[in-house]
Amino acid sequence: MPVPCQPKAVIAGGSVGGLFIGHMLLRQGWAVEVFERVTGGLESRGAGIAGHAELTAILNAIGVSSDRPPGIDVSGRVAFDRHGNQLASFDYPQYLTSWSSLFNLLYSAFPPQHYHLGVELLDIRQTDEGAVALLSSGEQVAADLVVGADGIRSRVRGLLASKIVPSYGGYVAWRGIMDEVDLSTAFMAETFDRFSFCFPPGGQFIGYPLLGQDGSNAKGARRYNFLWYTHVGEGADLDALMTDENGLKHESIPPPLIRKVHIEALRRAGARDLPPQFAEVVLRADRHLLQPIYDVESKNIAFGHVALIGD
């Protein structure tokens, strides 16, 4: 329950970054309200991520969990040449988890009555005493702190640092996901449980095991994930990738709207440029994500009673 003189924070953005800072402030005695603009849940978004010891320490520090998130253990990283021969290895014990597992851990521990879906921050008014967040619901919420955790095209950044805009980095990230039962016996025996790297022309390819859709680490229920960074020129080439079958151009194209012609081109590139075991992975993937990579450099992340996360 709110207490007299309890500081209050409004967080724009209810994804992993917003939940991290939300838990941190709750731990320090703040009243926190999180507003997420999407109307559906975020729990099924994202793909695989690598876990580090620091992540467990942070989760413990913010009162969410004293244990690490669920994950698949790997002993290190392995690099392969064009023909599938091992080039190098690096011992680095680590675990591989999923974005959804981390999000669900943070989300389930956050007070549900203070997490609001389908509400977007529209404007901010600052005073000497604090800030007022104007929301798409019509509410005006006064707070001591407003945090912009609302992504690459942050509304908060646009309001307070309009000259800072994301710049295209010159490459995109393709992700593909498949169930382990769809992979060959040879791949499962020799490659599945390795954190693998290879270097096709103009890019970098990474492959690693992924928890099952339900967070399961049981054999037969896991998935495999690849991440292929590849150069794509700005302009017509990038525009074509971001345009769906109906001719509508997207800044970040939803996975179901990626044109089949581009997925087929990716598979042909895999057969041409990747070691055989990873060409198999690209061919068999049945779920794809496509993300243009942008860079953002903000000279300031604090503006009076407003702060940015992720810049």
Overview of the structural elements:
The chain is of the alpha/beta class and 311 residues long. It has eight helices and 17 strands. Helix 7 runs antiparallel to helix 8. The model has no long low-confidence stretch (mean pLDDT 90).
Would you summarize the structure shown here?
By secondary structure, the chain is of the alpha/beta class.
Name the features.
311 residues, alpha/beta, six-stranded mixed β-sheet, 8 helices, 17 strands
What Rg, in angstroms, do the CA atoms define? 21 Å
Largest sheet: 8 strands, mixed
The helix count comes to 8
Secondary-structure element pattern, one letter each: EHEEHEEHEEEEEHEHEEEHHHEEE
Low-confidence stretches: none
- In spatial order, strands of the major sheet run 3-5-4-12-13-14-11-15
Q: Give the strand content.
A: 25-35%
Mean pLDDT: 90
Structural class given helices, strands, pairing? alpha/beta
Question: How many beta-strand runs?
Answer: 17
Helix content: 10-25%
The span between the termini is 32 Å
**Global morphology:** globular
